[in-house]
Design brief:
Blueprint: E1 10-12, H1 18-46, H2 56-79, H3 86-115, H4 118-148, E2 151-153
Antiparallel strand pairs: 1-2
Helix pairs in contact: 1-2, 2-3, 3-4
Length: about 160
């Protein structure tokens, strides 16, 4: 599954620029707060998939009772992040799209498990791969934006 995991202390070399300040606030505030929830959802998913898979019913129940409802709430929080800078908004939109694709994949997995349709599971895995690529794109674009505005990770 996906993960923000850019959560570390970020400092700006030039804090007089409002975009620079917004990037620092976005990473140190918004992303840091959201990352705990994302990690929890990822751990819940990983607890019933791959080597940790027990059976389809357990996976189905975990998806329907915890993971998918959690993702709905998580997406609402991510979409509610208030960003003024168009450059940062554009980067954040990549993240929003990635987690929406991931949510879609999870609902397809749920449907596939419910109906015993393993072609749907394959379809969902393709979507998860697409979401992971978008997450890498998001991280790359955020790094470029940080470089452009001289925002550095504090060592």
């Amino acid at each position: 599954m996906l993960s923000i995991i850019l959560v570390c202390l970020i400092v700006a070399c030039n804090t007089k620029n409002p975009v620079t300040e917004e990037i620092v606030s976005y990473i140190n505030g918004d992303l840091k707060q959201l990352s705990e929830e994302e990690v929890r959802l990822n751990q819940a998913y990983e607890s019933v998939t791959g080597n940790n898979s027990v059976d389809d019913e357990t996976t189905y129940n975990k998806l329907s009772d915890e993971i998918i409802p959690g993702y709905v709430e998580y997406i609402k929080k991510v979409e509610a992040v208030n960003i003024k800078s168009q450059e940062l908004k554009d980067v954040h939109e990549i993240y929003i799209e990635a987690i929406n694709i991931q949510h879609s994949a999870l609902t397809i997995i749920l449907s596939g498990l419910e109906n015993g349709d393993y072609d749907k599971i394959d379809e969902a895995n393709t979507k998860l791969t697409e979401a992971r690529k978008m997450m890498r794109d998001y991280q790359s674009e955020l790094t470029k934006l940080m470089d452009k505005y001289h925002v550095k990770k504090k060592e």
